[in-house]
Automatic annotation (TrEMBL):
Biased composition (Acidic residues): 226-259
Protein name: Tetratricopeptide repeat protein
SUPFAM superfamilies per record: TPR-like
Gene3D superfamilies: Tetratricopeptide repeat domain
Source superkingdom: Bacteria
Residue numbers spanned by region Disordered: 225-266
């Protein structure tokens, strides 16, 4: 990304970088704010692949799937990389086109993905099968060597969880319980709610002891103390947005010919 930004005038590059930092910082906790920052970066430098990718993920997490797909396609065209292929396919699912996602799962681009990307593509394909209520097919899609491997990878918990969920859809609850347990065992960073799903199958109900409306065992309602943590007074809600200049206006016609609408100015 740094090399891409170096192609911009210095002040413009700094403004773009600041907004991209905020997108990354807020994407999980405040996705709508991250989306707003991404649109600023997009207005400033729409011909930078990293900006299009960031804008794509901000749109994706806020369920603006059509926008996300446009941005991911633009980034892919600029870089030539297939890295975003699985999330592009998942956007097709979000747009209610699981058949298209399955077509992408069988495309040559999948062979260009690393192992993590191929697993991600498998998860998307299984999700598309479930969208179409083809649960047994979803189960088969997820059956691979990596599913039963003893080695725990960053995607292991999610793969096992998806497999258990597909088994539930297929009416195979006993097998699903086993795989929810395996998913919970592999989930070291809370990427799934496998433990809760396992407890649900076992008839165990979790309650929040800090919820004032929940009665604890001694019959006394729990109370929750709200602590107002002091923070600095600096309001970073607005970075200098700059005048993005029409730095890449001469490329707009090319984008339109290839089906990528140029983003509207904020």
């Amino acid at each position: 990304m740094r090399q891409e930004l170096m192609s911009l005038p210095k002040t413009l590059a700094e403004d773009v970088a600041k907004n991209l930092v905020m997108v990354a910082r807020l994407l999980d906790a405040e996705p709508e704010e991250a989306y707003a920052y991404s649109r600023v970066a997009l207005r400033l430098a729409s011909r930078v692949a990293a900006v299009r990718e960031a804008a794509g993920f901000a749109s994706y997490v806020t369920e603006r799937y059509s926008e996300a797909l446009t941005e991911f396609r633009a980034s892919r065209r600029m870089t030539g990389s297939a890295e975003l292929w699985p999330v592009m396919a998942d956007c097709e699912r979000g747009l209610g086109r699981p058949e298209r996602a399955l077509e992408m799962a069988g495309a040559p681009e999948v062979k260009q993905l690393d192992k993590a990307g191929q697993i991600e593509m498998r998860l998307v394909a299984a999700g598309a099968r479930s969208d179409m209520e083809q649960f047994e097919a979803a189960v088969v899609t997820l059956e691979c060597a990596e599913l039963g491997s003893n080695a725990v990878q960053p995607w292991t918990a999610r793969l096992r969880y998806a497999y258990a969920d597909a088994l539930i859809g297929a009416g195979r609850a006993d097998e699903a319980r086993e795989w929810f347990a395996k998913a919970a065992e592999a989930d070291q960073n809370g990427s799934t709610n496998a433990a809760e799903r396992l407890a649900e199958i076992d008839g165990i109900e979790f309650v929040d002891a800090l919820d004032p409306d929940v009665e604890v065992e001694d019959g006394v309602k729990a109370t929750a103390e709200v602590v107002d943590e002091a923070g600095d007074d600096e309001d970073d809600s607005e970075f200098a947005e700059g005048e993005g200049e029409d730095y890449y206006d001469d490329d707009d016609e090319e984008d339109e010919e290839e089906g990528f609408a140029s983003p509207a100015a904020e």
